[in-house]
Amino acid sequence: MLKRVIRQAVVFAVFVVLMGFAYSGYKAFGQSIDDKQHEWWAVGSVLPRTDDLNMPPILDILAEFGELQGGTDKVLGRLLFEEAVFTLREAALGFAIGTVVGMAIAMALARWKPLERGLLPYVIASQTVPLIAIAPIIIIWGRKNFDFMPWEWKDWMSVSIIATFLTFFPVAVNGLRGLQSPKPENLELMESYAASWTETLWRLRLPASVPYLFAALKIAATASIVGAIVGEISAGVGGGLGRRIFLEAQRYTTGPERLYASVIGSAILGILVFLTITGAERLVLGRQGREAIT
Amino acid sequence: MTTHAVAVNSASKIFNQGKTNEVHALDEIDLTVDDGEFITLIGPSGCGKSTLLRLIAALTKPTTGHVEVKGKSAEQARLDQDYGMAFQRAGLFDWRTVSKNIELPLELMGWNRTDRARRAEEMLELVKLPEFGGHHPSELSGGMQQRVAIARSLSFSPSLLLMDEPFGALDEMTREHMQDELLRIWAETHTTVVFVTHSIPEAAYLSSRVVVMSPRPGRIASTINVDLGDRSDDTREDPAFFEKVTEVREALRAVESI
């Protein structure tokens, strides 16, 4: 188990380093062509610009994490960490609500067959709505209409709703597949015990859906981060990685490394939530390692 | 009035009635099974033997006629959990340990935890797997899994056991061993067994009565009483056993040539 984790970590590290070399190699190659723009064979080169503005050197990007940022007494790495915590809170809430909503939809569709045909197309259609368009709507709604809540409604809660919107879908679709996964003989067995639908749900359908659910949760967890970041950007929320990315994009020309570093920070957060779900999956379904007795 | 363990009265089953893919699976079946009998349903594929078993289990309804189990309707018997059922595939739940699989029907019947655990242990003794309670089904061989499935079907001591080719997927050696186990359990628990198979020696070896069925539509072609006394390995080499095997085989040949 530990051995496998170490091996996967090493493979990942090697992959990241290789990507770094590929980036630097491409940049060096492009610049060597850029320098020869007067040569006949380099005119109209299809390579994109590879100067430091378009592709800041990797070491500069990494160094930027440790640079003090103007107007604060904090280095960029620290700032990004704080933004990530802010975004994670939005995403986690959206993920939790989305999982509950998704499973509720899956159970309803599994329970009442006609619903599956009637409702599933709309569940799928919901995902074709461009997130970037509905995000501001949800934020404005939240500010205007959610004042009846017993607590003060904050913009980040609206961002959680946006994350929910991306989370519930994979859970609903995969959850439904999981709830329908028991073989006919297992369902007949429960029927032969005169088990009710609820008993069959708890003892057969739900446990059988767990592997499907984890596959969905891995997608949903990363999607909730994406949803939160996009929500922050399009809604102009006063915190989070999305806000940071938006800010650094606006002042790109004065420091492209900062935007690159912010994107890397977002990627790290996405990978961390993915690994968390994978770890939980191993804990729950950790039987694969056992050998069959023959 | 005497009640039988099972009484099937002129039951017919038509699938997809009125459609182009209509199948006449069973036609006017009459069958009674007495308490303590071990009865085998045998016939070529498509003769409706599994359908007949599922009618008794009330997993499907007859198109016409009716089925009684223990003097009440089959549906009521199912609701009262009067029978245990074993299928061709063991169908154990992977996420439960062997013990928890055996406890499944007991949980549904509201037994408390200690009673369930004690019964699961007894059942594992009965099927000779006492040390495997904590294992998961995926760690067990096919024969062991099938034994767990039988333990599960017997765990709540049903007086009727319905088995649909439970040994069909096993190799010959395991199969013979399982047959002896089943007969031992049958003798110990005084259960009534209705057993579906397509193996002639299995039918002759296990049953007190073999019901031979013919296909399209499924009918009972003949019934053969088997009286070989207590079975043992010697029975399998006994001329009287071979006579019964021959008798069942000829009954099946007669069916095929209809």
Summarize the structure.
The complex is a heterodimer of chains A (294) and B (258). Chain A is mainly α.
What are the key terms here?
heterodimer; A: mainly alpha; globular; B: 258 residues; alpha/beta; six-stranded mixed β-sheet
Question: How is this structure best described in words?
Answer:
The complex is a heterodimer of chains A (294) and B (258). Chain A is 74% helix and 0% strand. Chain A has helices at 2-34, 58-64, 76-111, 113-126, 131-145, 155-179, 184-192, 197-235, 241-250, 256-284. Chain B has 258 residues and is α/β, with parallel strands linked by helices. In chain B, the strands form 2 sheets. In chain B, strands 6-7-8-3-9-10 form a 6-stranded mixed sheet, sandwiched between helices. A 4-stranded antiparallel sheet of chain B has the order 2-1-4-5. Classes of the chains: A mainly alpha (294), B alpha/beta (258). At the A-B interface, α7 and α8 of A face β6 and α3 of B.
Topology:
The complex is a heterodimer of chains A (294) and B (258).
Chain A: H1 2-34, H2 58-64, H3 76-111, H4 113-126, H5 131-145, H6 155-179, H7 184-192, H8 197-235, H9 241-250, H10 256-284
Helix pairs in contact in A: 2-10, 3-4, 3-6, 3-8, 3-9, 3-10, 5-6, 5-8, 6-8, 8-9, 8-10, 9-10
Chain B: E1 6-15, E2 23-33, E3 38-42, H1 49-56, E4 64-69, E5 72-73, H2 74-79, E6 83-86, H3 98-108, H4 113-126, H5 142-154, E7 160-164, H6 172-189, E8 192-197, H7 200-206, E9 209-214, E10 219-225, H8 239-256
Parallel strand pairs in B: 3-8, 3-9, 6-7, 7-8
Antiparallel strand pairs in B: 1-2, 1-4, 4-5, 9-10
